[in-house]
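step 4 of 6: structure.
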Amino acid sequence: MTAALTRPVRPRRRHLRAALLVLPAVIPVAFVVIGGVGTTLLQSLGLMPLVGSAELSTAAFNDSDELLTSALLSLSIAVVSTAIAAVIGFFTAVLIISGNWGGRIVGALGAAAVTVPHLVGAATVGLLLSDSGVLARLFGVAPDAWPALVAGPTWFAVIAEYAWKESAFIALIIVGTLATRITSYDETAAVLGAHRFARLRLVLFPLAAPSLLVASAIAFAYTLGSYEVAWMLGQTYPEPLSVMALRLFNSASLTARPEAAAIGVITVVLTAVVVAAAMLGLRRMRAWR
Amino acid sequence: MTLSTSNVDVDRAQRIQHERRMPGDAGRPLSQSRGVMRTARIGSTALMSLWFALPFLPLVLWSFANSWSAPDLLPMTLGVDGLTAALANGAVAAFGDSLLLSLIVAAIATPLGAMAARALSRRTLPFGRLVSVLLFSPVLLPPFAAVLGINVVLLRAWVPPELGVILVLVVVAIPYTTFSMRVAYAAYDDGFDEAARTLGATSRFALWRIHLPLIAPALARSAFLAFLVGWSDYLVTLVVGGGQLVTLPLIIASSASGIGNESSVAVLSLSAVIPPLILLAFVSRARNLNPGKQS
């Protein structure tokens, strides 16, 4: 112990020192998170109107059909893209951990994909998948015959962009947190005669599962709350929650602000439910302990 | 028995040190694959490389295309029209603003994250779990939900929009810096600080000459993550910045919503992709310090 060597420090002073170290981070985070979500909640309940007197009402939540459509759309996009990203991310991580030269190339490309801003990702996926995009030219398909991948009913381009970025993120999280541990267990299993697929199923997957779950939960939360990709590559109707909220927020109508805030509150609740479920799943995983 | 330095093979010791596995290093191939398995491995490697590399292709092709009408496989005429259009859109100023904003966010969020991680790793912090959850929460929070609310608070408090953007982005970056520094501190050996203090170093000397050099690679990684948060942001700059701050993503978005701007969008996007890649190359070269090394 550092403290024991230099001079005796009373526990209360140690608590104080630790608290002083952590406060500069805690204060701004608490201000933005609690202040931001709290204000959004107050706005959604009509307690912080731009004009007029504050009055408690749930009017902003009344348009339930519209809200339900948007919520289901947002959830479907997030579920599909996170599922694809988790599968690709896990296998990418296995490739990287395997340590072959190919793994190194995939690792470098994945790291490059992680650094690309989502907005740039959306712009380039648009250039790739649109009806006169690079892929349509590569396959020699005429613009009329090319399926509506961008701004189409399948939300293909939006899902592809999220899956691309988040698969790289998930792979790097798995590699970063577990590579060393996984390798030693993997080697032990190999020495004991475990075959390739047995090692994948019984060693690599169970050891990677907790970080896979955590990374997927983060990717899911991000996808659910993200705005720019769905706004650039998506259909105009129906809208995901974030796009609808920003449209209402920027609209001229004064009643739209509480509605935008209500969508924010709904998104926070949905995210919290999914993250709580992921944390419960994490607790049940034995490898985490 | 005489002791000679020739018994100590410094080169070999350094090589072993170099070959020692660090957290985050990849493993080594356990077995040589043959036949079908070899084909499968090469095939899956190629597929994954294609998956990650393909979205970069349009950026490169469109950046230097002056005209490229629909059915043609490659651009018809090459040129710098895209670059000219991007420059006319204020690309240079936006690039400068993006860079400045990201550097400020990194400069603030990295020390805050490192200090918080140090406190959390010592386990003497009251309500440690609650603090961890709070510091991690911005990652899970939908940005637009917090931004709609905090925007009102910042406006009513008369906070200048630029400061507001920095504040919110620092908060978004803190989970990344705190978490990556916690991983570093989990593997950190307090013995070096203790040894320095025992030998009479002041606490300030121990901090600057022992502690910081030892955690420098982790600090660089954290700062890189915080830089990325500022560099990638669109929504916070748009809503909280209220048009005062025009960063690169903002002009990319406005160019991309127009028609026929492909080459200008590609040039702008490429200029947004390259700086993080250069930083990534530097950061991934920063290895953990070898405390026994003579310099």
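step 5 of 6: annotate
 - Residues 291-295 of chain B have pLDDT under 50 and may be disordered.
 - Strands of chain B lie at 65-67, 77-78.
step 6 of 6: archive
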